[in-house]
Structure formats: C-alpha cells, structure tokens
Amino acid sequence: MSVTRSESHVSEELRAPEISDFSPFPKSWYRLCASRDIDRTPFARTVFNRRFVGYRNSNREAVVMDATCRHLGADLGLGKVVGSCIECPFHGWKYGSDGRCREVPGATSAPDFAVQQVFPCQERHGSVYFFNGLEPTFPLPFFIDEVPQNYRSIDPRGFTASCSWYMVNAHAFDVQHFLSVHGRRLLEPLQVDTPSPFARRSSYLAEVLGEKYSDRFLRWVINDRVRITLTIWGGTFAVVTGDFGQRKSRFFVISEPLSDGHTRCEVIVFTPRISSRIVGPVAERLMLHIRRWLTTVYLRDEHSGLGSPRYNPLSLTENDHEMVKYFQWAAELNSIQGDQRCKKH
Ligand code: FES
Ligand SMILES: [Fe+2]
Question: Which of 150, 227, 278, 308 could cross-link 162 (Cys pair, CB 3.0–4.6 Å)?
C-alpha cells in the first residue's frame, strides 16, 4: 500500500525532498582516468550521458573538455594531440587548452561558436579529476588536516550499486544500518556537522560485533573499537577514515551517477608515505593492494546484498532523521549550485 504525503512518518521539519529535487549529475569532483592514460594520446569516456576528453598540453598539464566536437559532433577522444591543441578526427579543427578553436583547415579563422567547454581539473596521486561545472565550488577533497603529498595511492577498483548516488551516500547517516548491515554497535550518538557548505560529515565510535571474516580479523588482530568519519563532498565524493587506534584506514568512494539510475562507485585507498620508510616500498605496495581489495570487497558485498534500494520520501521515519537531513542538504546543493533538475530516478 502506498503512503501519501499527508501520512508521512516524519515531522514537517524533516520533510524529505522529492526525487526531482536531486541533480541527476551533481556538480562535484569525479575521476576521469589515470594520469598515464593521457601521457601519449587523448582519453575520453562518458559520464552520465556526457562525453569528456582529457589530454596533456605542451606544458604537460592535464586538460579536460567536452569531447563532442562543436562542428559536427565527432569524438575528440579519437583525435590526436598537436602541440597544446587537441585535433578533431573528422575535419581537423584544433582546440586549445582554453577550449577555443585555434585552426580550421582551409579557413582563415574559426567561427565564434567553435568553443569546447573546458572543465576544472587536477591531477593527484596518479589520477586525473575534473569538476562537473564551470568553476569548482569546493577544492578537490582530501582528508581534513592531512597533506596529499604525505600519502600514496594506487589505481581504484570499483563496483556498481543498484541505486541512486544519494542512496549510496545516505549510508553515512543511516544509523539503523550500522548494526544490521555492518555489525557495528554505536557506543555514542552519531555526530553530524557541515565543515563546509559543500561537505556533510558524520562520525561515530563503534564496537565491531559482526561475524564476517573481516570483522573477526579486525577484532582479533587490530581492535574491537573503531571511530569512523565520513565526509561527503558535493553529495557524491566520500572521504572516509577508520581509526582503529594503532591503525587507520583511509579511502575515497567516488559516486558517479549512471544514466540507468544506478551508481558507479570508485574506491581509492591511501597509505601514509612514511610507511614506505618503515616497511619498504614493496611491502607498502602490497599493503595498498590488500587494503584496496578488502575495502572494495567489503563495500561491493554490502551493496550487492541489498538488492536495489529505492528512495521514497514518504516512507522515511523519525529513525531516519539524519538520513533525511542528508537528503535535504544534497537536494539543497542542487539549487545552490544552480543545477538542472532530476528528470528520472
Ligand atoms: S566534427 Fe570535428 S571538425 Fe568536424
Ligand atoms: Fe553502509
């Protein structure tokens, strides 16, 4: 039986947004590719129905732009890099790092409309990231109070969650599921704050009660208590720290919306550079691989074990109030950033 708005289980203050209030493709940072993917040739891929291309200009700086040529729509990712320009494979129009067409073969000048949209981009830890908008509304996230240069990373691993990006990231505020899904019993109330208008953070101290092999391993070898901090930037970019006392785990989960309503999640794990000096580079790399495997499997299994959860603003209850506040915040970001409205789930 469906629930109507008048029968909603939350107070008016906790009224959850409509699906159409969320952006289908939020203004946030996303990972385009590995840095090495653009060393020799352009690299293009589709993110939520839009084709993005990355290449290096003559200064070796990464450039990310719309890959659909403004002339007749050919894919710039199939073109080539010439000096600081990317050349379209169809009629050879050459676009500079600012997106402006520099040369049209056989013509004295380029038409005014020959400008590709260029996206803010940044390289870090061997990845090329871009911001889905004209100007970044927040810097490329990292662990708060930590310096990126002090950390190492390896290529991400990913999985697809059968739900929307906002359902994926609502996990950070879903108090009920910490025990039922993760086997973590909260030892204190969930703390939630907004360290930036574009970041919402949750933090909790929990006892590890789960019976999965990974939980038993944590209890026996590392610690039976953990403080988890999750900071969700732009609604989609999760920066996660697990503090087990002597050991810490640090990773990103970048949610990339797919056009079928599902979400591609990229997991990027980090380790402090200092560990290389302590255990040596080979052992450090091995540890990064193990961390990546454990983290990705843990998250992938969680999502595959839930089927296809669906957002319903009318079926949330008072127990879900932190989730509702996250949904309100994520939908509000959409209007703050002037994004287009969600057409479908
Ligand atoms: S389609 Fe790109 S130059 Fe014609
Ligand atoms: Fe979860």
Answer: 308
* Ligand 1 pocket residue status of 71, Cβ below 6 Å: yes
- Nearest-CA residue for atom 3 of ligand 1: 91
Atom of ligand 1 nearest to the CA of 91: 3
For ligand 1, what atom is nearest to the CA of residue 88?
2
Beta strands per DSSP E along 171-235: 184-186, 191-196, 199-208, 225-233
Give the list of residues 6+ apart from residue 118 with CB closer than 8 angstroms, or none. 63, 64, 65, 66, 97, 98, 99
Q: Say what the pLDDT of residue 117 is.
A: 97
- Residue 339: exposed, middle, or buried by beta-carbon count in 10 A (0-12, 13-18, 19+)? middle
274 lines ligand 1 (CB under 6 A): no
Residue recorded with tokens 């479908």 = 344
Cα(144) to centroid(ligand 2), Å: 21
**Total Cβ atoms within 10 A of residue 305:** 8
The Cα 5–Cα 208 span in angstroms is 38
48 lines ligand 1 (CB under 6 A): no
For the chain, where are the alpha helices, taking DSSP H only?
A: 165-169, 175-180, 213-217, 274-279, 281-304, 321-336
Query: The pTM is what?
Result: 0.91
In ligand 1, the atom with minimum distance to the C-alpha of 79 is 2
Determine how β-strand 151-153 pairs with β-strand 191-196: unpaired
pLDDT digits (tens, 9 = 90+) for 188-219: 999 999 999 999 999 999 998 878 777 887 78
Q: Which residues surround ligand 2, an ion (CB under 5 A)?
A: 171
Kindly state the tokens that stand for 88. 């379209």
CA-to-CA distance for 92 and 105, rounded, in angstroms? 7
Domains and CATH numbers, the chain: 38-131 (2.102.10.10), 148-336 (3.30.530.20)
